[in-house]
Amino acid sequence: MKITVAGAGNVGLITAVCLADAGHHVTCVDTQKEKILLLEKGHSPFFEPGLEPLLEKTLSNGHLRFTTDQKLAYSDADIIFIAVGTPAKKDGSVDLSYIYAVSYSIADSIEKDVIVCTKSTVPVGTNDKIKQIFHYRKPRHLKVEVVSNPEFLREGSAIMDFYLGDRIILGVDNPEAASIMEQLYLPLKIPIIVTDIRSAEMIKYASNAFLATKISFINEIANLCEKVGANIDEVAFGIGKDKRIGESFLQAGIGYGGSCFPKDTKALVQLAGNIKHPFELLESVIKVNQHQHSLLVAKAKELLGSLKGKRAALLGLAFKPETDDIREAASITIIKELLEEGAIVTAYDPIAIPNTHKLIGNAIDYTTDIRQALKDADFAIIATEWGQIKHLPLDTFAAYMKEPIVLDGRNCYSMKEIQRYPITYVSIGRPVVSKGRVSSMSLK
């Protein structure tokens, strides 16, 4: 098939590259000329494991091309995927201006019947408005079918998720369009679920909201464990064995971040508010997550008193491993609070430093060497569970830090192992270890 993908961001580029690798002829269009020039050279504007080799492969075999020419991109396509950004507004609602701008451009450019497939995460009812744009704007003799096809790609494993996903959701109101989209995805051998359009839109938001709820729930249980003398590792293991609950997303820590969960939970609360349906559960999920982001700075103050003039090693900037994305990352909250307390911060991350520097600037120091970050530090905060951090020899903390005080926001190390080293170790929902000895669950 001839496929066009509108938007060369995380979702759009992954979709374009993977469909091209599957043998389709794919055009990826974006308004940012610099980004297109970079992609034409085989370089991705963001980090995603396995992406650049596939990008180079599909460019070289002619199955993928990039352009800023929207007329060229849309005029002869069989299927057009909309994968542009839907950023959050200040009130938590979704900015749909890019979605509508692309829809107008498609309507003005097409020269044959086409299926327009929305991959961007959009509030319920958005695809109905897209259909209205095509109804009034497209050439009268052409037929446009609108399909909702939400994505479930996780940053850091997006290529694998495309090929080995749990399900593909198709929201359609036309059987012929449903059949064409099913034929496109059948080679992936992933279960295909066909729904009405509004249900497909809701499935995306409900999925992310449920996972965010699971994270905030286990973090609240972890905070409770500290106060009653239980261990969150054992609690999470025990409840996760219940098949009704499952083991995933039960890792206690300093909360979720990234481009999806924070934006989508706020958007769903806003959507509910617009129809006068208070979503109190999700409002609490968001509140708990915001509290978790600040938890380790509060614990550091309990341990050290004033942080003014103290040297802090911040290990990890990305919101999760295997990505350079810092959107809504706990590390950003931590940096801002440490600076407000007067701490001197050196941050380590293998790939997210450039994005952090754009946001934070020179207010902190940066390094891709963990040991350099730890050198002469008064305390260390682990904000991202990078493999380089999880597999760091634990004697490194004592060897390089002024005081080996480690506040672990991702519970990277086993309690049994950490007790073998002269480290003060504070994690989430587990006992405090003070130089080999387990003390009370709470610092207070």
In short:
The strands form three sheets. An eight-stranded mixed β-sheet has the order 11-10-9-12-13-14-15-16. It has a six-stranded parallel β-sheet with strand order 3-2-1-4-5-6, with helices on both faces. The chain has a two-stranded parallel ribbon with strand order 7-8.
Explained architecture:
With 444 residues, the protein is an alpha/beta fold. The protein has helices at 10-21, 33-40, 51-60, 70-74, 97-109, 126-137, 158-164, 175-185, 197-228, 232-240, 261-274, 280-293, 295-304, 330-340, 353-360, 370-374, 387-390, 395-400, 415-418; strands spanning 2-6, 25-29, 64-67, 79-82, 114-118, 144-148, 168-171, 192-195, 311-315, 344-348, 365-367, 379-382, 405-408, 424-426, 433-434, 437-438. The strands form 3 sheets. It has an 8-stranded mixed sheet. β4 (79-82), α5 and β5 form a beta-alpha-beta unit. α1 crosses α3 (51-60). The longest helix has 32 residues, at 197-228. The chain is elongated. The N and C termini lie far apart (63 Å).
Architecture blueprint of SSEs:
Layout: E1 2-6, H1 10-21, E2 25-29, H2 33-40, H3 51-60, E3 64-67, H4 70-74, E4 79-82, H5 97-109, E5 114-118, H6 126-137, E6 144-148, H7 158-164, E7 168-171, H8 175-185, E8 192-195, H9 197-228, H10 232-240, H11 261-274, H12 280-293, H13 295-304, E9 311-315, H14 330-340, E10 344-348, H15 353-360, E11 365-367, H16 370-374, E12 379-382, H17 387-390, H18 395-400, E13 405-408, H19 415-418, E14 424-426, E15 433-434, E16 437-438
Parallel strand pairs: 1-2, 1-4, 2-3, 4-5, 5-6, 7-8, 9-10, 9-12, 10-11, 12-13, 13-14
Antiparallel strand pairs: 14-15, 15-16
Helix pairs in contact: 1-3, 5-6, 9-11, 9-12, 11-12
